[in-house]
Sequence to fold (342 residues):
Amino acid sequence: MSTSLKPFNTFGIQASASRIVIAQTVQQLTEAWNDAALAQQPVLILGEGSNVLFLEDFCGTVIVNRISGIEVVEEDDAWHLHVGAGENWHHLVEYTLTNGMSGLENLALIPGCVGSSPIQNIGAYGVELKQVCDYVDCVDLRSGEMQRLNNVECQFGYRDSIFKHDLQDNFAITAVGLQLPKTWQPVLTYGDLAKLDPAKVTPKAVFDAVCHMRTTKLPDPRIHGNAGSFFKNPVIPAEIAAELISTNSNAPNYPQADGSTKLAAGWLIDQCQLKGYQIGGAAVHRQQALVLINAENAVSQDVVNLAHYIRQRVGEKFNVWLEPEVRFIGSKGEVSAVETIA
Fold:
């Protein structure tokens, strides 16, 4: 007997799992994992399924992490939050602003759960999770022992962390600790935020502007299934970036601290005239080229074929090779997204 995973992935891709468990406590999570281990079944832990593409049916147990709770400790210089991994990320952003705590407003409307945020080191409009993350609590599923990793130990990188590498298997995030300084510094470097007056702007105004940009440019997954930004913004050596910018002076580019340059993947795709391009039931969103959508009952292979085509077109035009931000899930667990679409 299998259970549909369609309600558990925002792409709306039809796939199934042998078993689905909703875990609301650490104990339920570890018990479900150990039951699957005893049965020698693969296990996948999901938040809201907002950053995954199921390539095929999953032949094991999917554990949906719904550990909830928000605790706040106020100190003279900052607010310290301890947030359950199963809390909705955007609801957390709203909660902080409603209660007078600033710092997360640039990260509004990012889909998914709080527990997923450190895995990807989520970021938007000039702010990344690593800037506000104090610690991440996780459980070693084999022993049931809890571990707390501080910010440095999380090894945050661009859309990357230790949870994608050393702690990818056999560990589950149970809570995230955030530190929001009371001295607020608005980050107004991207998009419409640059039009705001830094001397007068409020956290709520930044939040409203971010929500407006996301709702007008990004598709609602309830209407057109999607996983948000499909590709990472490529970070390339400065000399390659300089060559590209010399022939494309309007190319958005963001110099990085290590001397490399970050480019806008959406712009690169748009320059290949791919907005609206469709393969099977999968299409490039017409307003935001960085988002691939389930336009007409897409199957996973439609999305893979479309991603491959986009990667080839951008690579041939700019000699920049895009990598998916979305996690690709095979029958027994995560597989290499780059190899799948290469």
Summary: DSSP finds eight helices and 21 strands in the chain. The first strand starts at residue 3 and ends at 4.
